[in-house]
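G., the chain you wanted modeled:
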Amino acid sequence: MNQVKDLLFEKFNIDEKALNLVNDAEAQLKESFGKYDEIMEYNQYKVLSAFQKNNIQDRHFSWNTGYGYDDAGREAIEKVYADVFNTESALVRNNIVNGTHALAISMLGVLRPGDELLAISGTPYDTLETVIGIDGRGQGMGTLADYGITYREVPLNDDGSINIDLALENITEKTKMVHMQRATGYAWRKALSVDDIGNATRKIHELYPDIVVFVDNCYGEFLDMKEPSDLGVDLMAGSLIKNPGGGIALSGGYVVGRKDLVDMISYRLTCPGIGGECGLTFGQSRAILQGLFMAPKVVNGAIKGAALCGKVYSELGFKVCPEANDLRSDIIQAVQLRTKEALIAFCKGIQAAAPVDSAVTPVPAPMPGYDDDVIMAAGAFVQGSSIELSADGPMREPYNVYFQGGLSYEHSKFGVIRSLDELIKEGIV
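Predicted structure as tokens:
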């Protein structure tokens, strides 16, 4: 340990107080870390089983050209994803540009004019508000509202759980899809647990078997021994540059669920009559499959880093969500920093911890889909990859920062160290 300390002092000029605070917090989390390791081991073997069941071979990493007909790699990827998430079908494509795109094609692919979308986890995160057309956002861009699809929402309970009784009361004959967002976005709440999602799904299907239950699974994959799709969810979507890409996939998103629904979504991604039968993987099949194989271990490091961040900053008197030892259902740790100076300093520390672009200074700036300026710190091998170490937050009171990622626990831990080191050196802590 002394050698590690000496290296951090010599190479990074880390303040000894920052290092001691982080190491003390780490020592208090051994029991929680043991639970995360057990979940990781289970999911690693689950993923391995899906690879072997589908007989993944070297030929699946080859290029195709043109339309992508008979792309063996693409077909293999989608079979593996369907098995990992225990669903009938999967659409896994590198031309799904982000998680919001995966969610958008799912909604626009399934919903029709006159249908209603009911969100029962409160208001979705900012970028999805434009997809839906909430309060006129995105008008004329092809939002759900533009197509005559209505939207209503039900708030969560005060403890962050789903208010299923109120949700059931709000279902009408127009309700076609019920949406749940597992992760927090920029809200100050815990992520929805898999069991809470499963309980809500069961009660909805008992009374309304034809309603499509759709879960935004971004940031949540491999944090439990179950996924929402194991508990009856009809449809689920996420991003490959978050958890399931393992930091290796270069781009893409996924949709998994009932085959009839996934087929409808594939027609939205490409066009009616073509669907998922075309589409090149552009040589990414190896990266997508290798990333998925590595994902349980990578996610394990990220969730430990998030717990460590929460523990360190709560010990310093900052409000954190979730608490360090709480059940976690996404990789995000929120810290209420109280001032814009602290938010900027935290992000400067995360940027300085990066392997790429560590000399860049993050500054607040406008971001598409967000009302406030946002500060973002990320020096990643894959741009925008939030399974890699990153932090961001909107420049509004109470100046919450959202910390996530790290391709290894050690790097996530170093992010916590550098963020605290920056706050100390700027006299904020």
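The chain is about 40% helix and 15% strand.

Shout if anything looks off.
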